[in-house]
Target: Protein STRICTOSIDINE SYNTHASE-LIKE 4-like
Amino acid sequence: MGWFAACSSLVLVGLVALVVQILYFSPIQDPILLENSPLSSPIASPIPINNKLQTVIKLGEGLVKDPEDVSVDKDGVLYACSRDGWILRLHRNGSWEHWKNLHSSTMLGTTITTQGDLIVCDADKGLLKIKEDGVTVLVSQVKGSKLSFADDVIEASDGSLYFSVASTKFDFHNWYLDLLEARPHGQLLKYNPITNQTSILMDNLGFANGVALSKDEHYLVICESWKYSCLRHWLKGEKKGKTETFLENLPGAPDNINLAPDGTFWLALLQGSPEGLGFVHSSKILKHVVASFPSLIEVMKGGLYKKAMVANVGGDGQIIRMFDDNEGKVMNVLTSAVEFEDHLYLASLNGNFIGKLPLPKLAAPTN
Model:
């Protein structure tokens, strides 16, 4: 009996120590529950599964590593940032060029300026401008604090750059902790190239991700990934300065969003949680447990690799059509989609190629 009591006491002490470790030394603080979120109760796609993304043409297979975004300039030159630090260019003649090496594994969203320069959001270095003759750091601090986790960027016709900060608390390598904590640490910022000043347009966003300007530049669309929604922020007109819901209850977590030539938008969607494990987001204890053990975080990230989705969204916030790889067979972790000359160019944080999808061969939009 003494042996049993000693073992029981040892187990009890171990459990208490584990609880103390989880609750008091957890990397997240007072997480918000998401019982009614698509994270805990996935929403079905409004359009039937079609696996169209399994038919993509693979560009540069083996040359690029996990490109988060893709941009195409007015001459049709494609730019992609690779995890190995290289920015690659695909020229019209089909040749690839290792253009610049930034020695960075944290390059995310990109855009091409009217001057033909490439703007890169580097989650560690800040907002960068890359030209033929070198690299310029445009923004590395905001209001005296280091700019961290710059995520996506778009240029307005006046040269202003609007860009998102996914989280002011967690860095790129710990992004899943932001989702688990579910507190709004994201921002939407504006860089003025004339004054070199950066201002905060929106604060307290839920993992601010993709940013896009409407065709008439009357409003911005900003994606909140773990909220499975997108906001519309008015820049002009009677609603100037106001913010409203643009999309909500999406069938996936919105990543990058890009304006299409016809004025609609292409929105990349991610699978936020593995099937059957969404209940984690409905329990504070479970959130702390997962956050405290990196191996469990990797299990939760597993849902990202199960499928890929991209939606074409109208200016009224309605989904027009969707393409997917419901099995994650060819594409998964799809993070960006850009339309150029009737083709969709696709980037993935878990791929070694850029996907190219000929749009004219696909079915007409669903009304």
Q: What stands out?
A: The chain has one domain: 32-361. Helices lie at 2-24, 175-181, 284-292, 294-301.
